[in-house]
Amino acid sequence: MTRIALVHPGEMGAVVGACLVEGGHEVVWASEGRSAATSGRAAASGLTDVTDLASAVDGSDIVLSVVPPGLAVEVASQVAECGFDGVYVDGNAVAPSTALTVERLVMGGGGSMVDGGIVGPPPVAAGTTRLALSGSRADAVAGLFEGSSLEAVVVGSGVGAASAFKVGFAAWTKGTSALVLALDAFLDHHGLTDALHAEWDRRGMDVAARARAARGGAVPKAWRFEGEMREIETALDEVGVPAAWFDAAAEVYGLLGEFKDRFDDLPSDQDVRSRLRGGR
Prior knowledge:
The protein has helices at 11-22, 36-44, 53-57, 72-81, 96-108, 138-143, 161-189, 193-202, 207-217, 222-238, 244-255, 269-278; strands spanning 3-7, 26-29, 48-49, 62-65, 87-90, 112-119, 129-134, 150-156. It is 51% helix and 14% strand.
């Protein structure tokens, strides 16, 4: 049995933690400063509350970070300050350069780093979600998930490779969702939504279906996706690839942040379109 400290059991992290518990590992977390909703998810996933971060890190072989992109560096710094000298797995949607920044912090505290990127929904069923890993200890970390609903795969040898894999995946899935949401607002302004959706359908294109799905899938998560688009913009820009669209995608998701976590009370199509048209 391996003891793993999970930071923090959000919608994705809690289910990843449950996969580890399923595999016979002890997964601990720190409830200090966290919401009642987070505590509920952690309890349902079989995680052990040890109250504070220092207690979670102390005695753990692995720290797994699954947080919004904007918190990835801050969390790594906090763990390093606790003197963690085990394996730190950054499972966040960040640019390769951000992953390298995390690695420097982790190594400064005496630990080693495995880069990670989760592609797919929370892994409640096998075959839906993969955890891409890279780094010298990636094989060992992948082994922790053997037989669970989360398939772990090693995609490269160095830190940054798994983050690049995640960037490429999310740039398409979440970037195009932002695009179709923006187009939907534009078409609605001109009264052409139904007409163009019918044209897309007539040509066998899936754009209309993507637009319909984006409201239920992407809009409640927009508050998280804004930061991810910024990381994608950084990643592309660093290798000389035009990246301005992802600045616009970040703006789209930023405008929709007010609909945070409204999965059971989805905003109407008109609410989304009006927010995007009136955002500026």
